[in-house]
């Protein structure tokens, strides 16, 4: 082999070595970048996780106790804030826990209308999106609220103004929007309270309302009349 051939061979080997070294550096640096990206992504994912429903519900409840609508707006929808700040009774004194995303605060020291017995909160996506509340209302208003809840298929809403017994009875048959039309017939006095009715072709449903002007009223039981 001539001297020129030796030089060419050495140069070729050196070029190949530099090429391989560059490839190794790129692989190592690329892997490090991927690893760094993965590390940076972990805190972001963790921080994006929503707080437990109980935590969110308690934050809204405490903001309401402090009459702080700004703090309430941070953890609840505008409708939920409006609803809780419209609560007519003293604050419920016991947190009754959560079932799924539905959390309740109930009364143990006062007797309020309806078996909701306080406040109910629906938590979705880290915010309270709906607040159910026991209501202080007249027999007529209670009856209309109860009927509207039945039409909407919303048992929790019905419990704002009714006993569990009344809700179970009325909701035995699902409301049919294509069925008979219901007509409000008003309320009349009966023994122990008021009988408030909705008539329809073939009969009527009677809500037996109990309570007082001081405490408020609730639908205690429901009965049906057939023509």
Give a short summary of the structure.
By secondary structure, the chain is an alpha+beta fold. It has helices at 3-48, 53-65, 69-75, 78-84, 139-152, 155-159, 164-170, and strands at 94-99, 102-106, 118-124, 127-133, 183-190, 193-200, 203-212, 216-226.
- Specify the biggest β-sheet: 4 strands, antiparallel
End-to-end gap: 120 Å
Number of helices: 7
Strand order of the largest sheet: 1-2-3-4
CATH architecture of the largest domain: Roll
Q: Which segments are poorly predicted (pLDDT under 50) over 5 or more consecutive residues?
A: 1-14, 32-47
Radius of gyration computed on alpha carbons: 33 Å
The 3D shape can be described as globular
Strand content: 25-35%
The helix content, as a percent range, equals 40-55%
Quantity of strands, as a count: 8
Mean pLDDT: 86
Order of helices and strands: HHHHEEEEHHHEEEE
How many domains? 3
What does this structure look like?
- The chain is of the alpha+beta class and 227 residues long.
- It has seven helices and eight strands; from the N terminus they run ααααββββαααββββ.
- The protein has helices at residues 3-48, 53-65, 69-75, 78-84, 139-152, 155-159, 164-170, and strands spanning 94-99, 102-106, 118-124, 127-133, 183-190, 193-200, 203-212, 216-226.
- The strands form two sheets. Strands 1-2-3-4 form a four-stranded antiparallel beta sheet. Strands 5-6-7-8 form a four-stranded antiparallel beta sheet.
- The longest helix is centred in the first third of the chain and has 46 residues, at 3-48.
């Amino acid at each position: 082999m001539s001297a020129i051939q030796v030089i060419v061979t050495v140069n070729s080997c050196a070029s190949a070595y530099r090429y391989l070294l560059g490839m190794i550096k790129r692989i190592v640096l690329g892997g490090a970048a991927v690893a760094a990206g993965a590390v940076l992504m972990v805190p972001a994912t963790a921080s994006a996780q929503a707080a437990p429903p109980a935590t969110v519900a308690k934050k809204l409840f405490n903001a309401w106790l402090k009459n702080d609508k700004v703090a309430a707006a941070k953890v609840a929808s505008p409708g939920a804030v409006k609803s809780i700040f419209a609560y007519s009774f003293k604050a419920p004194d016991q947190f009754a826990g959560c079932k799924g995303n539905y959390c309740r605060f109930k009364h143990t020291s006062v007797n309020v209308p309806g078996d909701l017995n306080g406040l109910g909160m629906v938590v979705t996506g880290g915010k309270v999106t709906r607040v159910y509340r026991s209501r202080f209302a007249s027999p007529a208003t209670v009856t209309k609220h109860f009927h509207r809840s039945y039409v909407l298929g919303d048992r929790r809403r019905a419990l704002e103004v009714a006993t569990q017994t009344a809700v179970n009875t009325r909701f035995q048959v699902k409301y049919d929007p294509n069925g008979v039309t219901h007509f409000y017939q008003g309320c009349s006095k009966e023994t122990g309270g008021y009988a408030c009715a909705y008539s329809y072709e073939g009969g009527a449903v009677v809500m037996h309302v109990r309570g007082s002007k001081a405490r408020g009223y609730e639908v205690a039981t429901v009965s049906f009349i057939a023509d």
